[in-house]
Amino acid sequence: MYRDTESSQPALALRGLTKRYDDGTLAVENFDLEVPAGAFFGLLGPNGAGKTTVISAVCNLIRVTAGEVLVFGEPITSLQARSWIGLAEQDINLDRFLSVRETLIYHGGYFGMGREEAEQRAEQMIDAFNLRSKRDVVAPKLSGGQRRRLLLARALMHRPRLVILDEPTAGVDYELRQELWLYIRQLHAEGTTILLTTHYLEEAEELCEEIALIRDGKLLARDSADGLREHYGATNLADVYVKAMAEV
Amino acid sequence: MKIDRVRCLPERRSGCAPPRGQITGAQGMRWLAQRETLRVSKLWTQTVLAPVISALLFILVFGLSLGDRVRNVGTVEYDQFIVPGLIAMAMVQAAFANNASTIFQARSERYINDILSSPMHPWQMTIGFVVGGVFRGLLIGGSLLAAALLLTGVPFENPAALALTTVLCLVLFAAFGTVVGIYAESWDNTTFIGNIVILPLAFVGGTFYSVALLPSPWEELSHFNPIFYMVQAMRFGLLGESDVSIWLSLGVTAALAIPAYLWAQWLFSSGHKLKA
Question: N- or C-end of chain A: fewer Cβ atoms within 10 A?
Answer without folding.
Answer: N
